[in-house]
Write a structure and sequence with these properties.
Number of helices of chain A: 3
Distance between the termini of chain A: 28 Å
Largest sheet of chain B: 5 strands, mixed
Number of helices of chain B: 2
Shape of chain B: globular
Largest interface: A-C, 32 and 32 residues
Largest sheet of chain A: 5 strands, antiparallel
Order of helices and strands of chain A: EHEEEHEEEHEE
Helix content of chain A: 25-40%
Distance between the termini of chain B: 34 Å
Number of domains of chain B: 1
Low-confidence stretches of chain A: none
Number of strands of chain B: 5
CATH architecture of chain B: Roll
Mean pLDDT of chain B: 97
Radius of gyration of chain A: 15 Å
Helix content of chain B: 10-25%
Order of helices and strands of chain B: EHEHEEE
Low-confidence stretches of chain B: none
Oligomer: heterotetramer
CATH class of chain B: Alpha Beta
CATH superfamily of chain A: Molybdopterin biosynthesis MoaE subunit
Chain lengths: 136, 80, 136, 80
């Protein structure tokens, strides 16, 4: 299941959707809005996406991950719009027969998502300025 | 004419989410970037980092674009 | 938070308990009862623990993990007793400023838990036989 | 007398969750395993894999045990 949403992510439902008695391991990753970045204080992040292409790229990532690991089920939800401190921007859940597969697949999916899925975020610093985030 | 969706800082500096420019089939991604930067000087500082997607996939500078393609232009992604 | 329990694990509450605006990443690991193991079919697992020592060892693991990664919050719950197919036997949630830290810490905690925490499981195979599981 | 908590297959083959054996302070973990295997022959096939914990920590074969210590004996762990 791949989804872009403007409402809070229900990661509990996402995790339930990947559980299965065929799998011994589930890994869930949550990206959340962190207050401090290199000494500067964030008050909110604005996420903008290119929805059709983002969904296409996420489906490609799922296919790549499935070619590398024996994934049972996988779900990815990315939120768009204004997010406050602590809010969940992205949730990735994956189930596999064994734990190392699930950890590796989960880490691959979030690393690749950050590198190739057309979504952008803008910092809203506590001094009132805004700044588009450049990838590291 | 070719319609180009713009996102993030590219959308912001251009001031609109869709740009429209005259187009000859066969012109390339690199030519698109040059035409855009000429028409919208705000894009010039970021032109070397601009990405172009054609039909929902990243396109290299030498890829040809034809009218009717779905084209988008944006800075490096920073989601997650 | 470290806990041994005989009731179903509420991993949603566990995950909420580690979320924090100081952290950009949460990783949750769930171990679940898998039906097939090397071609044999499980109907249930019975988990037995040595509670005082298990809690001591889990607290030591948390301290070790905190010495290796900048962990914000961590929670570990292990279930004991009879578990059916798909049930969650263990849940580990960890939050860190950055994602690689959270993945590495989560994987360390489940790997070490399986190696040193005094809990044992017994297979109930579908042919009616039972068998204590030997670590691999 | 020394009380020894037994878990998992060790508990099962002994048939009880606590064993009690005569003990002299200063005897070692290795001696404990030998005394247990003598008293409970069901433990003999697993004696080389048996683990002993003293006061909630794993104890090596040459560690001394004294009466009053919390002692447990069990096979390699398999939780998770």
């Amino acid at each position: 299941m791949i989804e872009l949403t403007h409402v809070p992510i229900d990661y509990h439902a996402l995790t339930e959707s990947v559980r299965s008695s065929q799998s011994g391991a589930v890994v869930l990753f949550l990206g959340t809005v962190r207050e401090m970045t290199e000494g500067r204080r964030t008050v909110a992040l604005d996420y903008e996406g290119y929805p059709q292409m983002a969904e296409t790229k996420l489906a490609e990532l799922e296919a790549q991950a499935r070619s590398k690991w024996p994934i049972d089920r996988v779900g990815i939800i990315h939120r768009l719009g204004r997010l406050e401190l602590g809010d969940i921007s992205v949730a990735i859940a994956v189930s596999c027969p064994h734990r190392k597969q699930a950890f590796d697949a989960g880490q691959f999916l979030i690393d690749e998502l950050k590198g190739s899925v057309p979504i952008w975020k803008q910092e809203n610093w506590d001094d009132g300025t805004t700044e588009w985030v450049h990838p590291v | 004419m070719l319609q180009i969706k713009l996102f993030a800082k590219a959308r912001e500096v251009v001031g609109r989410s869709v740009a429209e420019i005259p187009w000859l089939d066969g012109q390339t991604v690199l030519q698109l970037k040059q035409v855009l930067a000429e028409k919208y000087p705000g894009l010039q500082p970021m032109i070397s980092r601009l990405l172009v997607a054609v039909n929902n996939d990243y396109a290299a500078d030498d890829a040809a674009i034809k009218t009717g393609d779905e084209v988008a232009c944006f800075p490096p992604v920073s989601g997650g």
